[in-house]
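New here. Invent one.

***
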Amino acid sequence: MAFRGPGMWRWRDRRPQVLLWRWRRNPLRRRTDVVEAWVLLGAWACAVLTGVLAGWAAADSMERGLARERAEWHTVEGTLTEAAPAPSTELRSPSRTEHLWTKVTWPGPDGTPHSGQVRVAAGSAAGTHVDVWTDAEGRLVTEPTTPSQARLRSTLVGTLAGTTTAAIPFITGRLLRSRLERRRLDQWGADWAHFDPLWGRRQTG
């Protein structure tokens, strides 16, 4: 077990002061140091706030949209207008059912016939009745997501949207900090060029 001497505790006590030196009164602190501190604080605050809000809004919008699809989309009985091709002889697993695209017709909400293509079991004969998913206007759609799938998709979309949105103020703050840091270094260089000759004459005198 390593021994932690008193120096370790003194270093830990001083660490927060070093991290917050821009906020403390210091004769060496410049105005650019204070501006840089506020820029960093503002960038982090904006990144967190905008990221959370954007992520929540995107996830909520996605989940509402998927819930609306589950409520509006429904199955209707369709009829195959042509026979599906026979199963492929190259199918490796005999227990696996091959599904192929085949033309189908189904009635719309007002009874108007619609046509399209759905995936059905290979070898299905023409005239076979199948269930197809349609929206409120009778257009062919895919099967809606389940509630668990919707939550997962909404979480992923919200995370991506929040991260992308939060990156904008964060990167902007980093760029501003780099510009202020270059400006501070240039100012230090100018001050050093001004006082170095005076310091040199004082040492030689």
